[in-house]
Amino acid sequence: MAAKPSIPKGTRDFSPVETAKRNYIFNTIRNVYHLYGFQPIETPAMEMLATLMGKYGEEGDKLLFKIQNSGDYFSGLTDEELLSRNAAGLASKFCEKGLRYDLTVPFARYVVMHRDEITFPFKRYQIQPVWRADRPQKGRYREFYQCDADVVGSDSLLNEVELMQIVDTVFRRFGIRVCIKINNRKILTGIAEIIGEADKIVDITVAIDKLDKIGLEHVNAELRGKGIGEEAIARLQPIILLSGSNDEKLDTLRTVLAGSETGLKGVEESAFILHTLAALGLQNELELDLTLARGLNYYTGAIFEVKALDVQMGSITGGGRYDNLTGVFGMPGVSGVGISFGADRIFDVLNTLDLYPKEATNSTQLLFINFGEREAAFSLQVLTQVRAAGIRAELFPDAAKMKKQMSYANAKQIPFVAIVGEDEMNAGKVTLKNMETGDQLLLTPEALIQQFGLNETAGLSH
Asked: What is the pTM of this model?
């Protein structure tokens, strides 16, 4: 007996209904991006490992899916190397490519390769899957979609403001209540400076970014494990646990970071973003959160993260300012800022809260029952007119028993069926049956089309 097929852990199949729901997510985000002048691009699923390695920090590099070279990838390896069982070392010998970990680094590579074709500032969006060799858990997958928007070639903080407006607009359209958390890597750098651990900025940010996941005690233990002294850890506590309104936090930070020029610059950048957005009246909550670190190494300024308020879920959107990313590809001095919507987590949130509009599934609206060859030929003529009017319709392909065809309509949640028998053909009409109420109407093809046009106001449809 053949083994039952399976898929890799951390990946998922999506049914027609689920796929329609996901397309609703992508289309909603895409439409908002278009409102703000962003243009789409696409990049390959795999990149050269040299492009990906070293851009996500040590932890991120471990999560890269590597692709072994085709052909005899053992050629060129010595017996000693093969017997060493050094997985990382061997992979570097016979893996030149890897699946992309995010869309930002491929985008930076794209900008450098196509710099002569691009008009700056360049506003692009990209909706494609990414892969991470992570441990699968609730809300975390090995294959998932990101929906990114980035602006490169501009230092203006108005870009950060606009991206937060996009975030607010998207979640308002979804009906999801969120908290938009904002911080600045310059503030974190300033904190590292004033506690006397400026050279440990990466270790500090990676640790405190885990505060809401592992708690303060474990964060402190991780800091100790990175060689950060007890005095520095003690000075860090009141800063990362800072509370109050955004303005109160900013005022405290101006005092605490008075000795750090970099830190103060981060405070003023955050103040501009927060005050500008406050004047624009966002619908969702906006919070300055000093524990937000987003442990990716390439962020240099403002950083963002979005949490759903009504569902226990990790970050569903994130991003930030990166001043140096294209520099590693030989194009220094190009500043960028971007956000990324986690479509798979948004999918789970919308499912949990049952927030999908009924029309999001775009399922069949009308099924023509098939009673035989003559009836099917008549139905096809009407079906052609119906589809031309934009009504999603289908004809059951076989002249099966009525019960089977009705069961098909119910299983696909098709709200209406069209019945065409001898009487209907003689009259040049169709019987329209509402599957929910059982009501029936005898209609000409033109009246049938008009009836669907009245659906929303007449309450005929779902």
From this structure: 0.85
